[in-house]
Structure to design on (405 residues):
């Protein structure tokens, strides 16, 4: 795992005793009304960086205003104490009482300091300077994560000035050049006041041509991939399985996409099915439109039942591995359900899945166990509605054992 770069900027936004709506209005208004001096660079860099993602390409080319994460059942400003903003060119910022956190450029910590292209680095410094100046700040700390010695400052809970003092006491004064940090990574840091930006030079934009478009590759053999067994081999970029109860029968709608290959797989659980595969240069957007349409028609997860497969001991886990791998694929391609994740600790393992038909799901699992001669011990539970997979074992008792080998 690499060490990511985090830039933390100071600001003078008043957070205390202010509502979420007040803060978002103030921040959004300023962001929307600012014009970046190097906007064309930011746009072209983003297009190059996301050149394999048609959805991002379209967003980069069309998004003009900043948006923020709305409060909902998963996010509350009162609890999280921070506000996330997404801007044009794929830019992301988080604001809290003490700092502005930048998530661009998307470089590793070491890359940022060892970069031999000062002009390119200065383009990003121009962007950072513009943001911190906009909100009354004037400097940025380059911090890091992943057990780096600056990781604790990435998540520092005091004021920006208190963080600076803590750094000074621990490591002395901030270095003044990127090379000085590169020469002593383990014992140094840099708080950038942007005074060394060379405003007379700009990144040559011709290097980022031609611009990618939002079309997807359709270089697929349609005849080959109109066969379900061949489709199963593909690692789809997007896939979803929804269900709906119609006249007492559970209907499934399985939608999948990779590049410009679009698969619509529908049918009745345990009954007839239909498979339609097409080539579409705008497949990601067609996929989004179809998913929205079927959700509006009432397809969703309301028929799902959750289950847990539990193992204890590596021999038992290995015994069932091949069967579990195929179970995940066949569960989906039979329209029955989907894998939901898992947990791993020591020699204990749990696999979670959803299914709309317990009998068919269990038959599939056990048939695959027989196919691969899986003799290891296994337990399967039906999870009740209020089970929490992430809690300790006492809180997992609210589930029912339905199979044990």
């Amino acid at each position: 795992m690499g060490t990511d770069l985090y830039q933390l900027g100071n600001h003078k936004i008043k957070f205390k005793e202010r509502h979420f709506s007040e803060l978002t209005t103030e921040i959004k208004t300023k962001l929307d009304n600012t014009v970046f001096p190097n906007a064309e660079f930011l746009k072209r860099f983003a297009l190059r960086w996301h050149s394999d993602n048609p959805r991002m390409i379209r967003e980069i080319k069309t998004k003009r205003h900043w948006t923020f994460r709305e409060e909902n059942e998963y996010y509350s400003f009162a609890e999280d104490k921070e506000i996330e903003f997404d801007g044009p060119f794929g830019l992301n910022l988080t604001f809290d009482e003490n700092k502005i956190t930048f998530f661009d450029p998307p470089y590793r910590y070491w890359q940022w300091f060892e970069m031999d292209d000062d002009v390119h680095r200065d383009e990003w410094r121009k962007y950072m300077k513009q943001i911190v100046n906009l909100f009354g700040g004037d400097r940025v700390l380059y911090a890091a994560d992943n057990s780096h010695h600056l990781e604790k400052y990435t998540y520092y809970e005091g004021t920006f000035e208190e963080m600076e003092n803590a750094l000074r006491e621990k490591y002395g004064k901030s270095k003044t050049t990127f090379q000085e940090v590169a020469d002593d990574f383990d014992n140094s840091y840099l708080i950038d006041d942007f005074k060394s930006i060379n405003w007379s030079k700009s990144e040559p934009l011709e290097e980022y041509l031609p611009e990618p478009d939002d079309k997807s590759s359709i270089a697929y053999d349609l005849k080959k991939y109109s066969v379900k067994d061949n489709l199963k081999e593909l690692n789809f970029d997007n896939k979803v399985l929804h269900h709906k109860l119609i006249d007492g029968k559970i209907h499934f709608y399985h939608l999948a996409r990779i590049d410009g290959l679009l698969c619509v797989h529908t049918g009745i659980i345990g009954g007839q099915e239909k498979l339609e595969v097409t080539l579409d240069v705008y497949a990601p957007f067609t996929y989004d439109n179809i998913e929205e349409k079927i959700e509006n028609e009432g397809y969703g997860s309301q028929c799902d039942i959750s289950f847990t497969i539990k193992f204890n001991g590596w021999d038992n886990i290995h015994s069932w591995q091949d069967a579990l791998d195929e179970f995940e694929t066949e569960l989906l391609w039979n329209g029955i359900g989907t894998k939901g994740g898992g947990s791993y600790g020591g020699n204990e393992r749990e696999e979670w899945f959803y299914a709309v038909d317990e009998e068919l799901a269990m038959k599939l699992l056990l048939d695959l166990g027989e196919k691969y001669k899986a003799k290891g011990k296994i337990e399967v539970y039906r999870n009740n509605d209020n089970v929490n997979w992430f809690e300790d074992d006492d809180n997992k008792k609210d589930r029912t054992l339905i199979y044990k080998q």
About this structure: The mean pLDDT is 95.
